[in-house]
Amino acid sequence: MDQAAGAPEGRDAAGDAAGLRDRYVARLGLEVAGRGRDLALLRELQVAHLIAVPFENLDVFHRRGPRTGVDWSVPKVVDRRRGGWCFELNGAFGWLLRQLGFAVDYVSCRVFQDGAWGPPFDHCSLVVHLDGRRWLVDVGFGDACMVPVALEPGEREGVPRPVGVEVDGEAFRTAEHHADGGWRPALWGRFDPVELDAFTARSDHLQTAPGLAWTKQPFATRATAVDGSRVILRPGVLRVREGSGRFVDTPIDEDDWARLLAEHVGLEDGA
């Protein structure tokens, strides 16, 4: 399977890709046959993915060495029914969108964290070209916007919160408007497309460098409804939000981790 485009060679390989595509769509609980490749379908696919496929770090935490290629991420999401982090989730979802006929670029983003912008390739995101416009689509950034965002200057409606966009030549920046009334910078990306293997060095660093949060403790989160409701599970706490409201935290015992992971996120810790 071709890492960047997901375009296998030969009749048998094409059939395998089609079957994998259909199982992927089925995992999202959607029916796309006969549907136009339009913004409505793109939005449904993104929302369904965020509800069905969790953002989680279990392979990173357990030092299983997740990779960036779709030969790793697509079977993990589809056949193992797992989640992952941005390199896996957006890598796999980009493959699916291409298989469905959308024009998609993988793009490098910097992440705003601890008051500063991180390095390039810190985050893999997707830019979808549709009807002459560019749309930011992301299923691998945790509690971020659940719907496509037009990459045009201004404030955009989003779920669970509005998104602000700045565009400067070949770069764009996003910020999200939070419940406290403030805008928080989120992503600083470039429009020029890259291959998934361009993220490999950063992926390896984030899962091997000492002291990084990715390997300190396990976590898992997924959206639970189209209105932005979400559940987040970390050792010691279960966080639940209804719509765009505030999270309600419930302390949990260590012995409850596996049960709650299966109940709320649909995962087994040892999967």
Can you tell me the residue ranges where pLDDT is under 50 for at least 5 consecutive residues?
Answer: 1-11
What is the number of E strands?
14
Number of continuous helical runs: 7
In angstroms, what separates the terminal alpha carbons? 24 Å
The CATH topology: Arylamine N-acetyltransferase fold
- Helix proportion range: 25-40%
CATH class descriptor? Alpha Beta
Main beta sheet:
9 strands, antiparallel
Structural class: alpha+beta
Q: Tell me the β content.
A: 25-35%
**What is the 3D shape?**
globular
Number of domains: 1
Describe the structure.
With 271 residues, the chain is of the alpha+beta class. The chain has seven helices and 14 strands. The chain has helices at 11-27, 39-52, 58-61, 70-78, 86-99, 200-208, 257-265, and strands at residues 55-56, 103-113, 116-117, 123-130, 133-137, 149-150, 154-156, 163-168, 171-177, 183-190, 220-223, 230-234, 237-241, 248-251. The strands form two sheets. Strands 2, 3, 4, 5, 6, 7, 8, 9 and 10 form a nine-stranded antiparallel sheet that branches. Strands 1-11-12-13-14 form a five-stranded antiparallel sheet. The longest helix is centred in the first third of the chain and has 17 residues, at 11-27. It is globular, with a radius of gyration of 18 Å.
